[in-house]
TrEMBL record:
Regions of compositional bias (Polar residues) in chain numbering: 91-103, 115-126
Highest taxon listed in the record's lineage: Eukaryota
Protein name: Asl1-like glycosyl hydrolase catalytic domain-containing protein
Region entry Disordered, spans: 91-127
Signal peptide: 1-30
A Pfam family the protein falls into: Glyco_hydro_cc
Asl1-like glycosyl hydrolase catalytic domain location: 36-292
GO cellular component, one term: fungal-type cell wall
Protein keywords: Signal
GO terms (BP aspect): fungal-type cell wall polysaccharide metabolic process
PANTHER family: ALKALI-SENSITIVE LINKAGE PROTEIN 1
Biological source species: Bimuria novae-zelandiae CBS 107.79
Amino acid sequence: MTRDTRPRRGQIPTLLTILTTSTLLTLSATQNSKRGIAYVGNPHVPDNALLTSTNTPLIWYYNWAPSPPREVPSANLEFVPLIHGLDEASSESTGRQLSNLPDSSRHLLSFNEPDGTTNSGGSSISPEDAAQSYIEHIVPMRNGNRAWKISQPSVTGSGNGLDWLRRFNESCYELDAENGCPADFIAAHWYGAFDGLASWLGTLDEFYNTNGSRGEGEGMKIWVTELALPQQDAQVTVQMMNLTLPYLDQLDYVERYAWFGAFRADDANEWTGDGVALFDDDGGLTELGALYMGDGFSEGQKGEGEGAAGQLLANWRMMLPPLLTAVWFSIY
Ligand SMILES: *[C@@H]1O[C@H](CO)[C@@H](O)[C@H](O)[C@H]1NC(C)=O
Ligand SMILES: *[C@@H]1O[C@H](CO)[C@@H](O)[C@H](O)[C@H]1NC(C)=O
Ligand SMILES: *[C@@H]1O[C@H](CO)[C@@H](O)[C@H](O)[C@H]1NC(C)=O
């Protein structure tokens, strides 16, 4: 997809730099892992058991909601709640759901693709309304008992997203000239080729950390919370992931990332295509899935347990966030 690879503002690391740094890296799967899953819902018990098995390299997961999905046994993984839009931010039940989470939950993701439309999984919020709600409802959680570490809203990986963030920041400072909208980390989405990903992360780092007003050593880290190469065949997708994982693992300003998605090929949405799936239709790891799970996992490997967990709990609305990005790229 050449439209994804067009250079953006921000530093574009050369392939040589990337390859050199990644070969220097010897990171064992479970030590200092940054890896997690963006969980859209998977009714197959064995798949979820494999993802959360004791030697999993995955350390965190989220499901675009303030409370965890029932079908994921989560003792080994940090659940990361997300406040999707204005309604969730102001609702009292969100506060209750957050306080019921285990102590291991410490990070909170704010507004999901506010520059995107609701029917593509976004929350469609104006920067002005988002700033007001963020200051009223989200900042207090940061300062509350659990001292949640809070992300900036996660925009689509696009020029629209960057414009939205600029306007959001302006509105924040209009409302609170001293603090703006304080946050602890940056959440980023990317659907596209590897070099576009590197460029987009460079742009966000430049926007917040180089150009932003934070002092030396106070830079925010990036979490890549949605990540995939849509609409490519399995082999091209494996190559993209094979470049991406070592790159993100060695990049200091990236703290965590999550591939989209942890589902079977059959359950992939039309926009991403089957190539992104970590499981094949029989519940075996795809080559991509084996690469994501790393050492000790192999293609075709299945998890333990039987059958499907009754009814599909997937929230299909969440399968759609890439749509907006697609629309944006096609009109660009
Ligand atoms: C950072 O600042 C430079 C210099 O003013 C500007 O050219 C660049 O576009 C800014 N980057 C972002 C991501 O806003
Ligand atoms: C947000 O706006 C403030 C006030 O104008 C400015 O100092 C700061 O650098 C901006 N931050 C970002 C990330 O653009
Ligand atoms: C990933 O890349 C390395 C070299 O950088 C290569 O040895 C390995 O076979 C590749 N793995 C896959 C699954 O493509």
